[in-house]
Design a protein that fits this description.
3% strand, single chain, mainly alpha, ANK repeat, disordered N terminus, two-stranded antiparallel ribbon, repeat, three-stranded mixed beta sheet, ubiquitin-protein transferase activity, 36 helices, 617 residues, Ankyrin_rpt
C-alpha cells in the first residue's frame, strides 16, 4: 500500500469485499412488505394470524423488527412488534441489531425507545454491508452514526454514555469518520465528550492526519486549538508522514498555511527523503511558494542534494518537472538555493539522471514538445545544468557484455543500480523512429551549442559509446550519428556492421530510415560491406504487401550505395582506419583518453583533423 493512497486503497478493498460477499436478499414476505409500506392494519392482521414469523430472519439476517427500525415513520409498527414479543436484542450473523439499524438510518425516536428499553449502545458489530460505501468491520452505533452525518443520533448516543474512543478493526475511532464526512458539528460534539485527538489507526493516522488529507478548513478550525504542542502537531505515520506533508500531498493550501502558523515542522522528511516542500510542488505555485518560503535552506540542502553513497534524496527540480508548473521552476531558480540543489539528479527507472536528462526522458502525455522546449531553454541558460557530474555514479559496462551490443539498447545493456545517463544519451534514448514532427534534433543542437568540447560529454566508457551510436543508427537519429567524429572508440565501420547484423534478423522491423543511415556513413568506412549486405536479401520476405515493397526499395537503395563504395580504397582512408585502431589500443593501455593520446603524437594539424573525421561530418 502506497504512502499516500492507503485510504482510497482500503476503501477499494472494502467495496470489493462487499461486492463479492453481499447476501442476495429474497423477495419480501407479506409481513415485511406491510412493514415497509407502513400498513399497520395489515401488520396486525398477519401477526395475529401467525406469530411464528415475528422473530424469523431473512438471508440478510434481518427480522421484521430490523425492518421497522430502518425508518422512524414505522415507529408505531415498531412499538407493536415489541409488544407482540419481537426480540429487541436479536442480532444478525454479522452482529447487527435493530438498535444499530435505527442509528444507521437516523431513526431517532426508535433509537431512543431502544435505549430506554435497555439496549447496550457500545456493543460492536462484526461487519455491516453498506451498498453506498463499503463494508464496516467492528463498528459501534456511534461509528455508524458518524458515517451518516446524523447529529441528533450522535447527540443521543453521547448523552447516554456512548464511548467516544472505541476503535473499529482498522483502529479508527468515531472522530475519524466524522472528519471523513466533513461533519464539523459532530467533531465538536465528540471533542466535547472527550474524544482522543491523538488516537492512531492501523496506518498511524491521527484525526489531524485525516483532516489534513481531506482538506476541510472548517473541521480543521474546530480542532486546531487543541494542538498547541508541536509534538502532537508533528506526529508521524510509520512512513514518516506528518499532517503538513499530507496537506501538501493533497494540495490543500489553507490547511498547510494554518499548520505552518501553528508551528508545523517543515524540516523533517519521510522515510523516502521527501520534505513537505517536495510534496507541495504538485500543489501549484501558491502552495510551493508557501513551503519554499518556510523551509530552511539547511533542510533543503540535506534532503534535496545528492551526496556520495546517499540512498534517500529527491531532486526538487525534477519534482517540479513532474508537476508541470513552469512558474514553480522559475521560482526555484530565483530562490537563491545552491547549485547542488538545483542540479540534484533523480532516479528514473533505476538510473541516475540530471534534471535536464529527466526532462527529456520524462514520459507524460501532458508534457508536449513545445512545453519541453521552454523548460530546456531555461536549463541551458545555466551552464552548471548542461551536464553536471555527480560522484560515485559512473557505471562501467562489464566487458562480457560487449558481444550483446548489437542486440540491445543502451537502457537494457546497463546495470541500473548506479548508471548515470548524460544529456546526449538522454536525447538518444528520448528519440524514436516513430516520432511525428520530431524535436529531438533541435534539442540535441541546443545542448551541443552549450558544450565547448562535445567529446567530453560523450559517455566515458567505450562500450557505452558503442551503445549510444548503435541505438542512434537503429532509430535513424542522424544528428546523433554526426557525433561519431568526437568518438574515441567507435568508427562508422562499427556502426554499419552492427546495423547490418540487426537487419539480417528475420524479425527485424524495417522503418525506411536504414538507407539514410547508410548514406551518411558508408563513404567514411574502410570496410567493404557488400558481401555481408548481399546476404540480407535472404531475410526479406517476398513483396506481397506495401511494407514488403518498402523494404525492397530501401534494400535496393542501400545496395547501390555499397556497390558504389565497392572500389579499391585509398591508402589515405585505410591509413586513418589503422591509425585510429592503433591509437585507441595505446590509449587504453596508458589510461588516457583517445584525444589526449593523439595530442601526444606530433602530427600536422590537417592530419589530426582527418584522423578525427572532422573533414567528413
Amino acid at each position: 500500500m502506497s504512502n499516500y493512497d492507503f485510504y482510497h486503497d482500503y476503501q477499494y478493498y472494502l467495496n470489493d469485499f462487499n461486492r463479492r460477499n453481499a447476501p442476495q436478499v429474497e423477495p419480501d414476505t407479506p409481513l415485511r412488505e406491510a412493514i415497509k409500506t407502513m400498513n399497520m392494519d395489515k401488520v396486525k392482521e398477519l401477526i395475529q394470524r401467525d406469530r411464528s414469523e415475528i422473530n424469523t430472519h431473512n438471508s440478510k439476517g434481518w427480522t421484521p423488527l430490523h425492518e421497522a427500525a430502518a425508518d422512524d415513520r414505522r415507529f408505531f409498527i415498531f412499538q407493536y412488534l415489541l409488544s407482540a414479543g419481537a426480540d429487541l436484542d436479536y442480532k444478525a450473523e454479522n452482529g447487527v441489531s435493530p438498535f444499530y439499524v435505527a442509528c444507521k438510518y437516523g431513526s431517532i425516536k426508535i433509537a431512543k425507545l431502544l435505549i430506554e428499553a435497555g439496549c447496550k449502545i457500545n456493543d460492536k458489530f462484526a461487519y455491516d454491508y453498506d451498498y453506498n460505501r463499503s463494508v464496516r468491520f467492528g463498528f459501534t452505533a456511534l461509528h455508524v452514526a458518524c458515517t451518516r452525518k446524523n447529529e441528533q443520533i450522535i447527540m443521543l448516543l453521547l448523552a447516554n454514555g456512548a464511548q467516544t474512543n472505541v476503535v473499529d478493526d482498522i483502529g479508527r475511532a468515531p472522530i475519524h469518520y466524522a472528519i471523513d464526512n466533513s461533519n464539523g458539528m459532530a467533531v465538536q460534539m465528540l471533542i466535547d465528550a472527550g474524544a482522543d485527538l491523538h488516537v492512531k489507526d492501523i496506518y498511524g493516522c491521527t484525526p489531524l492526519h485525516y483532516v489534513s488529507m481531506l482538506g476541510n478548513i472548517t473541521v480543521f478550525n474546530v480542532m486546531k486549538f487543541l494542538y498547541t504542542r508541536k509534538k502532537n502537531l508533528n506526529r508521524r505515520t510509520p512512513e514518516g508522514l506528518t499532517p503538513l506533508m499530507l496537506a501538501c500531498q493533497f494540495k490543500h493550501y489553507h490547511i498547510s498555511e494554518a499548520l505552518i502558523q501553528l508551528g508545523a515542522d517543515t524540516s523533517v522528511a519521510d522515510i523516502s527523503g521527501h520534505l513537505a516542500l517536495h510534496m507541495a510542488a504538485n500543489g501549484g505555485y501558491r502552495l510551493f511558494k508557501l513551503l519554499l518560503k518556510n523551509t530552511s535552506s539547511k533542510a533543503i540542502e540535506k534532503h534535496a542534494t545528492h551526496r556520495p553513497n546517499s540512498k534517500a534524496w529527491r531532486s526538487l527540480t525534477c519534482v517540479v518537472i513532474e508537476s508541470h508548473y513552469f512558474e514553480c521552476l522559475e521560482l526555484l531558480f530565483n530562490s537563491g538555493l545552491s547549485e547542488d540543489v538545483l542540479k540534484c539528479p533523480e532516479k528514473l527507472n533505476g538510473h541516475v539522471v540530471s534534471p535536464l536528462g529527466f526532462l527529456l526522458l520524462h514520459n507524460n502525455r501532458w508534457f508536449g514538445k513545445e512545453h519541453k522546449l521552454r523548460w530546456l531553454e531555461l536549463f541551458l541558460s545555466y551552464d552548471f545544468m548542461v551536464d553536471p557530474v555527480y560522484h560515485n555514479n559512473e557505471n562501467i559496462i562489464p566487458s562480457k557484455l560487449k558481444c550483446q551490443m548489437w542486440k540491445v539498447s543502451i537502457d537494457k545493456i546497463m546495470e541500473p543500480s548506479s548508471r548515470r545517463i548524460g544529456s546526449i544519451e538522454a536525447v538518444v534514448q528520448m528519440h524514436s523512429r516513430l516520432h511525428i514532427d520530431c524535436y529531438c534534433e533541435m534539442f540535441l543542437s541546443m545542448i551541443l551549442s552549450k558544450i565547448a568540447s562535445p567529446d567530453k560529454f560523450l559517455p566515458s566508457d567505450s562500450l557505452r559509446q558503442i551503445c549510444l551510436f548503435n541505438e542512434s543508427a537503429r532509430e535513424g537519429f542522424l544528428a546523433a550519428l554526426s557525433l561519431l567524429k568526437y568518438s574515441e572508440y567507435v568508427d562508422p565501420d562499427d556502426v554499419i556492421d552492427t546495423l547490418l547484423k540487426q537487419m539480417a534478423n528475420p524479425n527485424y522491423r524495417w522503418m525506411g530510415h536504414e538507407d539514410g543511415v547508410v548514406r551518411l556513413l558508408v563513404e567514411k568506412c574502410a570496410t567493404n560491406f557488400l558481401p555481408v549486405f548481399s546476404g540480407i536479401k535472404n531475410a526479406l520476405p517476398e513483396p506481397g504487401n506495401p511494407d514488403d515493397v518498402m523494404k525492397y526499395e530501401s534494400y535496393v537503395r542501400m545496395e547501390e550505395m555499397f556497390k558504389s563504395n565497392n572500389r579499391v580504397l585509398s591508402l589515405k582512408r585505410l591509413s586513418r582506419f589503422a591509425v585510429r585502431k592503433h591509437i585507441r589500443k595505446e590509449a587504453e593501455n596508458s589510461d588516457v583518453c583517445f584525444r589526449s593520446y593523439l595530442k601526444q603524437i606530433i602530427l600536422p594539424f590537417p592530419l589530426s583533423k582527418y584522423v578525427l573525421y572532422d573533414d567528413y561530418f
